[in-house]
Every structure is written in C-alpha cells, then in structure tokens.
C-alpha cells in the first residue's frame, strides 16, 4: 500500500514537472501540447501517468462492485483463478457490470437512431455521438485487466495447478 502510494505520488510529481517545464519553454497552450506530443520522454511520462490513472480507476471500481473484502476473501481472490460461479456471490459482479454496460450502449444507440429518424434531413453529427458512445461504454473492457480471476472463472478458465 505504501509502495503504491509512493509510485502514484512520484508519477504525479514527474508529470507535473514535465508539463510545467513544457509550458515554461513554450508559454502557450497549443505549442506546449505539440511539444509534449513530439517529445518521446514527455510522452513516456504521460503514458505512465495514464497507467496510474487507469490503475486508480480499477481500484475504485473494485471498491464499488466488491466493497470492503475480508482477509479470507482477499486470500481467495488472489489464490483461486478457477473459482466457480457458486463460490462467492461477489464473483458475478463484474459480469453484471459488463452486461449493464452493453445494455446502456444499446439504449444510447437506440436513442441516437430515434433522434436521427425524427429529422427529415440526415443528422451530420450522429457519427460523432456514436463514436463517443462507443468510447465511453467500450472502456469496460479495461476491467478485464483488473479483475482477471472473476472474468476467467465465469467462462471456465482452469489454472493448470488447480483441479476442478
């Protein structure tokens, strides 16, 4: 926990230093952004910061869907990649989250198509809204990175060292 906090604080400090340095050199927003995107070391720092933010989002979503796990549940969660559906009522939460995200995507697309059908002329910005819908709801696939035992257990993944 302390190591994670140190890495996050270091990443934030490094990102702040890189962005401040770029702004100090260029003095305007657009040239600063161009400088940051053209500089490989700056992009590496920004990628690390993005990874830290995704990691924090995964931790937050874990707290939202699982709540506070007891020590025995934490041990089970870390040691049992081949968990069955009946072993824990919390193991199906990520699957429900994905299903809810899929239903939300379909509903938003339905609303966008309905709006388009109401107009006599084609809706020019419909494609942009569809893209944003896919971008917003498609991020649920990132949760596969943060909850692998739960997702793999639901589809029959078997770890070589664990007998069914």
UniProtKB/TrEMBL annotation:
Domain of life according to the entry: Eukaryota
List membrane-spanning regions. 46-66, 96-115, 127-147
Major subcellular site: membrane
Q: Name one GO cellular component term.
A: endomembrane system
Entry keyword set: Membrane, Metal-binding, Transferase, Transmembrane, Transmembrane helix, Zinc, Zinc-finger
Q: Does the keyword Transmembrane helix apply?
A: yes
Compartments where found: Membrane
Domain E3 ubiquitin-protein ligase synoviolin-like TPR repeats residue range list: 6-75, 95-144
A GO biological-process term: proteasome-mediated ubiquitin-dependent protein catabolic process
Q: State the name under which the record lists this protein.
A: E3 ubiquitin-protein ligase synoviolin-like TPR repeats domain-containing protein
Q: What are the leading ranks of the lineage?
A: Eukaryota, Metazoa, Chordata, Craniata, Vertebrata
